Amino acid sequence: MTSPLRLGIAGIGTVGVGVIRIVQRHADMLTARSGRPVTISAVSARARNKDRGVRLGDYAWEDDPVTLAGRDDVDVFVELVGGDTGPAKDAVEAALKAGKDVVTANKALLAHHGQALAELAEANGAVIRFEAAVAGGIPCIKALGEGLSGNEITRVMGVMNGTCNYILTRMESAGLAYDTVFQEASDLGYLEADPTLDVGGIDAGHKLALLASLAFGCQVDFDGVALEGIERIAIDDINHAADMGFRVKLLGVAQMTGRGLEARMSPCLVPASSPLGQLEGATNMVVLEGDSVGQVVLRGAGAGEGPTASAVMGDVMDIARGIRLPTFGRPAASLAKPKRADANVPAPFYLRMVLTDKPGALAKIASCLGEAGISIDRMRQYDHAAGSAPVLIVTHKAMRQSLDSAIAAMSGTGVLESDPVALRIEDV
Amino acid sequence: MTSPLRLGIAGIGTVGVGVIRIVQRHADMLTARSGRPVTISAVSARARNKDRGVRLGDYAWEDDPVTLAGRDDVDVFVELVGGDTGPAKDAVEAALKAGKDVVTANKALLAHHGQALAELAEANGAVIRFEAAVAGGIPCIKALGEGLSGNEITRVMGVMNGTCNYILTRMESAGLAYDTVFQEASDLGYLEADPTLDVGGIDAGHKLALLASLAFGCQVDFDGVALEGIERIAIDDINHAADMGFRVKLLGVAQMTGRGLEARMSPCLVPASSPLGQLEGATNMVVLEGDSVGQVVLRGAGAGEGPTASAVMGDVMDIARGIRLPTFGRPAASLAKPKRADANVPAPFYLRMVLTDKPGALAKIASCLGEAGISIDRMRQYDHAAGSAPVLIVTHKAMRQSLDSAIAAMSGTGVLESDPVALRIEDV
């Protein structure tokens, strides 16, 4: 029996409690699988005397996660504090400087400081593992970084914010408006304190930035992810999409193109019969595409105590077993700054708009599209009332940039009642 | 730059060519990701002068895979010969005895000799990796053995024979009889030389035995897998199942119960709306369930040059990166012989039978079920012709053993025209 692997856990919220439960419940199993005991030396959280329903008395207590990270009896610093600055960042840096390995669920921290932290880890002979930061319990970081390491990755996609997928599928199944379901999700405690992190696509964008770095061997570039939230999706969009055999998903797509790395997190239409289209509720899905493997689809719980703790423990077990890989799959110094694509891969687009009910309005819209070089695949005008006319257009493949200039031109015609909703139809 | 990892590849069929192509095409990428070059020293196959569409001139040639396995310039023996005896087994043993690591796609070899080979590997400080042996390109061995290693695994399921899934989904979509589609699959070259390996569930059973060993920390026990093929599935079964919202799949299930390890590979009904139910064509799916993670679903190509070579290279890259784990997730000596479950977990069953069209026939059948303690959930009698009556019964939850005794009793009544088809309805 070799020496135990000793954890220091900072942050004892839902996930921290889950990790402690696994270590306590499955001590023998973890030892049998890794060849050494996995133990907890010390923990840290904001409130010491809170009842968390889990036994903490055997562990040393530290008020300050930075102190915890530096303890001599901690081999692996498990960071479950959250946030891209402040104590989480300070403590991770302290752990790495002390040569300790880090396991984290903190997507924001790595999305903003991944490159610097990876360099710091390597300079100190430490590793950073972050399976729990992306798509909860789905072992997608391992699948991408290890299982598919013989592939040139061609595209990575994911529905990685369970709250957004819950909102969109609930709108469809119950026929409810966005605002109503947003309020429901809020009441159920599904939303972050700042809901923009969820519905604005930021949280999912963090995850996509991490996947893209690993997939394409480049530095994490969260600022290069084009973000668009689901706030403007109306029940009409969901119904129109369904009529045409599509579903609306907040979909992340990263792909290396001849024009650079294209990364975007935005509401898209995907075929209702595809695995992504069939994804219901808060479940997450990650789609990995490689030149040899083709398409691999991974599906599972994206959040919650058990699934996220499972991912944390997968990383802890890897470290216990001596698996030591660079943070983003290759040495940090060899990760190039990604060239951001100056244009997106063309796709068909779904456009919904409301026109003033005047003669020639539709002709003006069509001519704006034509002048931008965009041809129309289908168009539908719905019943209208009170002088305005809802119109639905599906274009042939077009560049997003061309579409944006067409939309800008439409605004100048005076026939639009409000800004059109434009959704990419992704070929998944 | 550390020293290259040198491969010796035995078997240059579809998968071998795929592996060689990856090594040739992606030399720089593999080096960047693993920190060392991956090279091929020598190859071996039955026919030397066959045009395989790939450049072999740089590699030494061996007629005998055993000699290849022993070469000084080979670090990893890649076994793509196939078969559970003969040259594949001899060469793998030779490689392990020489302390060389083995990467294999050979499910039959490991299903029959996994324990002995794992012991041999450990005695010689070598590792065996077999991602390519289970579900082709899907990194399910890695997900189960590493990613979910913080979980007590509660159940593992899989549709892992693409040919069978092709046959079953093609029967449904084209409304064709089993024999017709079987012939199509044969003409398309989808079937093994001995088609029983596919349609009899043997190939998929091998894979399930490997997953079960890894999932439950026990010795591989292929003989403990209850095998049932798809040969008796009629288009009627598929249509009746569809009417009730189900699809028929050749489904492998392994779970640890209070009565021991239950492992079976058999045609089952699964909800049409579940990920397993939605799986079309030759695609594979593996479902992993753990006490913390819940359900993780993995989907991808189960065979073919690229996907299988991707899995082989994933293993090669792990070895290049210094990842060295016991074959079945824990030391071979600690793997217990599994106690085989003496009874299956109860489930509802679908029963189809043809009765002689005589008064009281149905009553006799119903009473056979009643006497075995099985209650009927639904029953349907179809139009009949020429003196016989097709009957469809769905039972409430029952033990398979009880059902078998009911069916035996039915045979004694003289009202059955032929043996009933009984399919488990799996709760997926």
Task: List the SSEs and their pairings.
Two copies of one chain form a homodimer.
Chain A: E1 5-10, H1 14-25, H2 27-34, E2 38-44, E3 60-62, H3 65-70, E4 76-79, H4 87-97, E5 101-104, H5 107-123, E6 128-129, H6 140-147, E7 153-159, H7 162-174, H8 178-187, H9 196-199, H10 202-216, E8 226-227, H11 235-243, E9 246-257, E10 260-271, E11 283-290, E12 294-301, H12 305-320, E13 349-356, H13 361-371, E14 376-381, E15 388-395, H14 400-411, E16 421-425
Parallel strand pairs in A: 1-2, 1-4, 2-3, 4-5, 5-6, 8-10, 10-16
Antiparallel strand pairs in A: 7-9, 7-11, 9-10, 11-12, 13-15, 13-16, 14-15
Helix pairs in contact in A: 1-12, 4-5, 5-10, 7-8, 13-14
Summarize the structure.
Chains A, B: Pathway: Amino-acid biosynthesis; L-threonine biosynthesis; L-threonine from L-aspartate: step 3/5; Amino-acid biosynthesis; L-methionine biosynthesis via de novo pathway; L-homoserine from L-aspartate: step 3/3. Chain A is an alpha/beta fold and 428 residues long.
Q: What is the tally of beta strands of chain A?
A: 16
Kindly report the greatest chain-chain contact and the residue count on each side.
Answer: A-B, 58 and 58 residues
Could you give the distance between the termini of chain A? Answer: 48 Å
Task: Could you tell me the CATH topology label of the largest domain in chain A.
Answer: Dihydrodipicolinate Reductase, domain 2
- Biggest sheet layout of chain A: 10 strands, mixed
Order of helices and strands of chain A: EHHEEHEHEHEHEHHHHEHEEEEHEHEEHE
Low-confidence regions of chain A? none
Number of helices of chain A: 14
* Count of the separate structural domains of chain A: 3
